[in-house]
Amino acid sequence: MAALVRRSISTTSRPLVLASVARIFSSVVVAAHQMGTCRMGTDPTVSVADTRGQLHDAKGVWIGDSSALPTALGVNPMITIMALARRTGRSIIDDEPTWT
């Protein structure tokens, strides 16, 4: 990318603008959303938690974040994770009588 920008600078009448673009592209910040490490499902042999978010092997331990998603979504997962966390929270409250 930097080579392309340098070549463009030498053939254009606006070198300052392209030099600024080169600085922007040379310091790209990357972020990643880790997903799918604790799948939810009904079968304990292929999933870590039940469909409500409670772990199959450790009752009373819940997950409600992006690890419960089956795979990466390809888009920003913020709203989906918020909805999943809210749903898991409601499941924890509904399950309260069985804690003892």
Describe the structure.
This protein folds into 2 domains: 1-30, no CATH class; 32-100, no CATH class. The protein has 100 residues and is mostly helical. The model has no long low-confidence stretch (mean pLDDT 76). It has 3 helices and no strands. Helix content is 38%, strand content 0%. Helix 1 packs antiparallel against helix 2 (15-26). The relative contact order is 0.13.
Q: How many structural domains does the protein architecture include?
A: 2
Order of helices and strands: HHH
Main sheet, how many strands, which sense, barrel?
A: none
Kindly estimate the percentage of residues that lie in beta strands according to DSSP.
under 5%
Key descriptive features of the protein:
100 residues, mainly alpha, 2 domains
Tell me the layout of helices and strands:
Elements: H1 2-10, H2 15-26, H3 78-94
Short description:
This protein is mainly α.
